[in-house]
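User: Can you predict the 3D structure for this chain?
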Amino acid sequence: MKPIYIGATLQDSGKTSISLGLMQILRDRGLKPGYCKPVGQHYVRYQDKNIDEDGVLMHQVFHLTDEPYLLSPIAIEKGFTKKFIENPDVGPLEKKILDVDVQLRRSHPMIIYEGTGHAGVGSCFGLSNARVAQLLGAKVVIVTAGGIGRPIDEIAVSLALFREYQVEVLGIILNKVLPEKYDKIKETAAKGLRLLGTELVGAVPYDPSLAEFTVGQVAEEFSYKILCGTDALSNRINHTVIAAMEPQHVFKHIVDNTLVIIPGDRVDNILITILLLSRYTDKNGGMILTGGFEPHPAIEPLLRSSQIPVLLSDDDTFTVSARMKDLGFKIRSYDTDKIYRLHQLVDEYIDTDRILAALKE
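Assistant: Here is the predicted structure, written as structure tokens:
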């Protein structure tokens, strides 16, 4: 069976989400798929090697027995591109990828390869997504945002590069399609894609639960000090509010699962936030106190007894709130509810039978 290469039109289009769901479906069918992200831009130190964070995620979620290196053979470290441009020899890099492919094929009847960014990412060191897919003899599915005009325009660019490298694109997956426009977008986009010579093989609706993050993830991402509530850092957040207004105006903004950003010297709004969050459950939402102000000694015992996770930042309120705009967090192996939901969405909204049939040709 041919390997499948999950590409995208933009970074963060949902390649990893689709890969997670597809991996589980294939495992359910007894196919024992392998996984690899040949070129990784965001790596972490894992088992004494630099491994792309998506490779680490797959290794942990599916308890893969493959060496982590096989899931992430090339990690783009600092200075990597400059070094290549000064000595442009892509041969050793291609050999790494091909060697990994040989080893993975020994253990897995099929392999999911996940791309990096759009089709052209990696061109600066000779390993665009299109070239890597060609090297592996893979067939491609492209993930793009749920829409009509812009996604189709972006697909046209990606298709041109894959076709230049004579790589077969099996079809397109629209991701995060607005539920209220789902039928219209799916029908119109399918017609538009056929005009480009490709097909729609899936349209996944937007699920707000997948966009939720935890207080602990915020603390980790921005290195905020954790004042209290360490047992509740797993509290999920789906609403953020800046409580810099007068206290009487705060009430209407704080709802269930709210992260409240408060100047650390606003004792009044801190007290109101404790009251409002505590009325939902004993573990709900969280706070970020800004400006480098430690809470007043008189209210610190209340904060600690509230079981609400409280983070401290030396930055001003505007800086902290600006960071939260369009904030997106990678799925972690402990996000079992999200991983289960992705499995459901891929199973229901993507034509996996059609994809698998094409991989057998």
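The longest helix spans residues 91-107. The mean pLDDT is 93.
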